[in-house]
């Protein structure tokens, strides 16, 4: 059975990573969470006092890019790869609401995108990869055999994210999470460099009323249809 590239794009908190992990496990493909990469850069900026609610030292971050080493290390106990920043496991740290508040600003920096896109394209050289993000089907892998674009209402996504953060013990309100979702949607779709758009040949899936099992079954059928093509 031939190997393909699967690009999954969409808005924040639509379950892109969950779906991508399911597909990668089922197909025995490599999974890459590009959102984790941008989150790690945002976390680096926070740790080095390059970004806050009051300022963003963009030029300083650009100069520091050569000091940022990102890598995924597979955790056999968890069954997926975790993000390491300069040798440190930051998987938990990059998933906070604080990082979420800054990641879209950091991701809008052209130099940051260029650095990460280059790494992402190298990862997909041999196909057999599932990658999720904001510009995978439009910029990173414009020739991907299967492109999925995931969406859901802002309220649905905010509730999912709020429940997830509550389970982790984060002290946040639903209103705070909803504002973050809406703000990120605007920044992601209005940035000058590689804005979030639906690729012309992408298949859009609104999962507002789909559970994980239903969504996975629908997408796996799409994968099988593409793989069987001559």
The mean pLDDT is 94
Radius of gyration from CA coordinates: 17 Å
CATH class division = Alpha Beta
Secondary-structure-derived class: alpha/beta
Largest sheet: 5 strands, parallel
Gross geometry: globular
Number of strands: 8
**Order of strands across the main sheet:** 2-6-1-7-8
Within CATH, the superfamily carries the name P-loop containing nucleotide triphosphate hydrolases
What is the correct CATH architecture?
A: 3-Layer(aba) Sandwich
Strand and helix order: EHEHHEEEHHEHEHHEH
Determine the strand fraction and express it as a percent band: 15-25%
How far the N terminus sits from the C terminus, by CA atoms, comes to 10 Å
Tell me the number of helical segments per DSSP (H or I, 4 or more residues long): 9
What is the CATH T-level topology?
Rossmann fold
Tell me roughly what share of residues is in helical segments: 40-55%
Low-confidence stretches: none
Number of domains: 1
Give structural notes:
There is one protein chain. The chain is of the alpha/beta class. It has a single domain (5-221), classed as Rossmann fold (3-Layer(aba) Sandwich). Helices cover 48% and strands 17% of the residues. The protein contains nine helices and eight strands. It has a five-stranded parallel sheet with strand order 2-6-1-7-8. A three-stranded antiparallel sheet has the order 3-4-5, with helices on one face. β3 and β4 form a beta hairpin. α1 (16-27) packs across α9, α2 crosses α4 (97-107) and α7 packs across α8 (174-190). The chain is globular, with a radius of gyration of 17 Å. The N and C termini lie close together (10 Å).
């Amino acid at each position: 059975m031939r190997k393909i590239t699967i690009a999954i794009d969409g808005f924040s908190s639509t379950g892109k990573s969950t779906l991508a992990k399911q597909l990668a496990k089922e197909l025995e493909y490599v999974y890459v969470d590009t959102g984790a990469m941008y989150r790690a850069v945002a976390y680096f900026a926070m740790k080095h006092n390059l970004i806050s609610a009051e300022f963003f030292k963009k030029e300083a971050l650009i100069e520091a890019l050569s000091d940022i080493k990102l890598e995924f290390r597979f955790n056999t106990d968890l069954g997926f790869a975790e993000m390491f920043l300069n040798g440190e496991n930051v998987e938990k740290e990059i998933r906070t609401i604080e990082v979420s508040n800054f990641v879209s600003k950091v991701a809008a920096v052209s130099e940051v995108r260029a650095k990460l896109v280059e790494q992402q394209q190298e990862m997909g050289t041999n196909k057999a990869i599932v990658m999720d993000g904001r510009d995978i089907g439009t910029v990173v892998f414009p020739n991907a055999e299967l492109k999925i674009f995931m969406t859901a209402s802002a309220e649905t996504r905010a509730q999912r994210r709020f429940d997830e953060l509550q389970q982790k013990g984060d002290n946040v309100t639903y209103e705070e999470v909803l504002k973050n979702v809406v703000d990120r949607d605007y920044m992601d779709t209005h940035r000058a460099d590689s804005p979030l758009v639906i690729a012309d040949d992408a298949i859009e899936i609104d999962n507002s009323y789909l559970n994980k099992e239903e969504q996975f079954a629908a997408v796996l059928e799409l994968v099988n249809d593409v793989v069987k093509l001559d």
